[in-house]
């Protein structure tokens, strides 16, 4: 059965993440729960499998939807030791070794049964990727096709990088709610930082969001997160020229 095969793949993955990479870039919005490796494009969960990271190639065994988003809960795997893995939604940036998404602990009912639903109090957004840039061009501009994930919902849009003025702007929408990046700064170290991201729409309204991110592959790609006072508004994003 497919779930059994997936389970075996995930078991084999913990602690076996392949060779280390020299330029890993990544961040997460919460200090607890989710673990990001600093030597490989790999993730783990505190308290599961000795905190060992796992490669995304195995998490992708669950399959993606039409938007390229992978979703699973730990209780989807018919092995009790996996039920602490939480609820995941993540997406790959094209075919690059760059991922962004969200994680949360999996909720439980009054009888202690896992519900396959994310615990909103532990909502964590993240990105991680290989070939992170350490410097940036100071001329020209570029437009990136970007998508984002928040609360299991998919958002799409574009960002515009002006390398001459060291600024990044843009927005993402799902037709109901819109995330605006504000005006983020592009550092000489190829990192993205901002503090005026916002949401507007029928379900999400927030201001003063903190943006952090990274360019990859000589500015061909980018990924990042935005965090707000209420973590339900936090979003992860990624895209390419």
UniProtKB/TrEMBL annotation:
Biological classification of the source: Bacteria, Pseudomonadati, Pseudomonadota, Gammaproteobacteria, Moraxellales
Transmembrane residue ranges: none
Signal sequence coordinates: 1-22
Name of this protein: Slam-dependent surface lipoprotein
Keywords: Lipoprotein, Signal
InterPro entries, per database record: HphA_C, HphA_N, OMP/PagP_B-barrel, Slam_hemophilin_C
Residues in HphA C-terminal domain copies: 135-241
SUPFAM superfamilies: OMPA-like
Residue ranges annotated for the HphA N-terminal heme-binding domain, each copy included: 38-113
Organism: Acinetobacter gerneri
Pfam families for this protein: HphA_C, HphA_N
